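Reading a protein record of the kind used here takes little practice once its layout is understood. The fold follows as a row of integers, each naming the local backbone shape at the matching residue. With these conventions in mind, the following record can be read line by line:

_____
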Amino acid sequence: MTTDTRAAAALAIAGVLEGGSLNQLLPAALETVAERDRGLLQQLCYGTLRHYPRLQPQLQQLLSKPLKNRDRDIEALLLLGLYQLEETRVPDHAAVAATVAATRTLHKIWAKGLCNAVLRSYLRQRQQLVGKLSPAAVAAHPQWLFDALQRDWPERADAIMAANNEQPPMVLRVNRRLGSREDYLAALAAADIAATAGQLAPEAIYLQRAVDVAALPGFAAGQASVQDEAAQLAAHLLGARAGERVLDACAAPGGKACHLLELEPGIALTAMDVDASRLQRVRDNLQRLSLQAEVLQGNATAPPASLQERRFDRILVDAPCSASGVIRRHPDVKLLRRADDIATLAAQQLWILQGLWPLLQPGGTLLYVTCSVLEAENSAVIQRFLAATGDAELQTLDIPGEIRAHGVQLLPASAGPDGLFFSLLQRRH
């Protein structure tokens, strides 16, 4: 176990720079530091990646020559050093000293002088460095995403990007089968955990500060789950009733599937996902909440033969997407996504709709959801699907949000919900 939190963070960030996912890299990194330092490790990783598009061009200005690929860890260390100086309350001298010291743990003593010189140069030149940044870099967004948001949301782009750069709230979903939201708010207050009720979903509770789930009253017994308020709307909008057959077609990690069963345990639910490893998360969530569902591996673009003979009354499609509406929770999206990914994702989303539509009972409804704010993945996909599908009909959704041509868009909001798109379709008799 290393006791150097910054070195551990640098290694995790370096993994993202090389194309890895923070969700996969962070758990191993957390195991290498003392429990008391895990909060700082997460802050350094998430914060550095959240501000990477602004930090990286400043670092390039400070380096006389680019670092070699084998020194990704030093590049990551310098970036997290800049993040501390620019965005945290860590005193400048302490941030510099701790960052320089991490070179020893990384076994790259040669970088000690480099790190010291770069960080101290930043402190002297920060105003000049920022003055040379592009508007996209100042907003801490990659150029392609900056341009896309300006195009799709010309009057809201600045607010969306500001929300993307903030730490997201921790939101709970109360299991109303086991108690009311008011009762759970009282339990949180008794545990000295400050919280307020959400405004959109009747089960939503916002915590003033994030806490370990082990500290939440009754979490192990299923009294609450962690789920953003916008995501909680999906189960309500689908509106499944007792006795109906319901398919959650892209179910992992299982939050929406479990919410469907909490609202109506009398449905026959099939939770499907293409990723067998992520299906274990679905099983774990079902077990903790004492819920029952069929868990099935399958590709929604070409559903498995076991589903071909069935007809579902309701289908939930939480489609794979750019995650442009939840960047504050997944800041590595800023590094890992590319402009040409959007057309590929939009094509996949259309194939998923086309693959699942034959499984829908005439008169049944399908709810299309993405955690994207980009039109190409949302209204444009639904428009193409409707144009090619004669028995598909768009339904009206009564939720507060930005009304688009083929659905409703929630935008990421400071201390509010994530950015999700919803479109409800019915299959004509």
